Amino acid sequence: MKMKISVIIPVYNAEKYISKAVESALQLDEVYEIVLVEDQSPDHALQLCHELTQKHSRVKLFQHPDQGNHGAGASRNLGIEKATGDFIAFLDADDYYLPNRFDAEKELFKDPKVDGVFNAIGTEYLTEKGKEEFQSKFKEISLSTVNYPTEGEEVFKGLLSLTTKTFGTSFHLNSLTIRRAALEAHHIRFNKDLRVHQDSEFIIKLAYHCYLKTGNITEAVAMRGIHDDNRITKIVKYSPQYNQRQFLLWKSLNDWAISNHIPTEARKRIYLQYKSFDLSLKKGLIKYCTILGEALKNPEILKTKYRFTYYNR
């Protein structure tokens, strides 16, 4: 039986790219529908979205009830609510799928215990400035993937660096396919209050609540577009703005870990991440007094990879 996949695309300021993103999904037989959620774009993206719905019957367009701007997390949540396929996949409006996007899924989802599958994605430089900014902040990344095949609880542990082997970078949302029933059963949604990193938080929560499995991790199934307006390249790593955004991410995860009573080892790792960014935002004498107090309670915090970056500034 052919898979029925709903592809959710949040659309904001993407008039240059949205048509290619949609066309790349339409080429795939497994795509049952494409759910565009337009988020009050300042460009002509909304007009293009209307044109795409008129041209293709599988393309559906939605906006927030107030037609306002609510961010990618809220837009993806709205897309999940409107989706009618058996599976959910995501695609950023400035990225696109490759023809092999769902090849692994077609086999792996025959196993009913598998809730979600994730794969590798590639990087494409769309502008020279975007390329320079990206490469000045990150290593040359031709393939965003994990280091070895894994599934179930090991995925969650790998994302938190709790495995004996190095798991690698977190997988990209563009590479994920999840059963819609699994999202509903565990009430998993994006944190609409996080304007950035809501995808990272979603993936960690998903890996805890659902049974995820690696698919194709050796070759790209989608391409991430790097251009002048990528938010990921605009913030200097370990700058106050970067630290603040990381703090909000890990604080949210820490609150979630406590309320869900997740295992002690994982809960402590999340707490240390949260606390290290919390400490990075403090200044002056109070900062060092707080570090000392925290180190006495949790000596492990002095071993976090953020210690020297933050504490010695």
Automatic annotation (TrEMBL):
Going by the UniProt record, its keywords in alphabetical order are: Glycosyltransferase, Transferase
GO MF terms held by the record: hyaluronan synthase activity
Organism, scientific name: Chryseobacterium jejuense
**InterPro entries, from UniProt?**
Glyco_trans_2-like, Nucleotide-diphossugar_trans
What's a Pfam family in this record? Glycos_transf_2
UniProt key word Ribosomal protein: no
Origin organism lineage: Bacteria, Pseudomonadati, Bacteroidota, Flavobacteriia, Flavobacteriales
Q: Which residues form the Glycosyltransferase 2-like domain?
A: 6-121
Q: Does the keyword DNA repair apply?
A: no
Q: What is its EC number?
A: 2.4.1.212
What name appears for this protein in its UniProt entry?
Glycosyl transferase family 2
